[in-house]
Design brief:
- The chain is 80% helix and 0% strand.
- Helix 2 packs antiparallel against helix 3.
- By secondary structure, it is mainly α.
- It has a domain of 60 residues.
């Protein structure tokens, strides 16, 4: 397992700047969705309509992993399309 993690991190370091940025933005959006969802749930008892705050929480919790997955897919597709010029023929 440790070898797989080191291999993944090594491949991530070799990616271009734009695919890395897409993955980082996906992770950032996931974090923002989680934060907004938790703030919505904590403030739910104090807002006029409790059910709207809970619905916002549930929507944020469902959208957070999807935004991260979209960022990973976009980054991997970007890396695939842009390619790397320094690849060896054995890869």
């Amino acid at each position: 397992m440790r070898l797989m993690i080191h291999k993944f991190l090594g491949l991530f370091r070799e990616m271009g700047p734009y695919p890395k940025l897409a993955i980082q933005l996906g992770a950032g959006m996931m974090l923002v969705f989680y934060i907004v969802g938790v703030i919505s749930l904590l403030s739910a008892p104090y807002v006029p309509n409790y059910f709207h705050a809970v619905a916002l929480y549930r929507g944020c919790m469902e959208a957070a992993p999807a935004s991260f997955a979209a960022g990973v897919c976009g980054g991997l597709l970007g890396d695939l399309m842009l390619g790397r010029d320094n690849r060896s023929k054995d890869d």
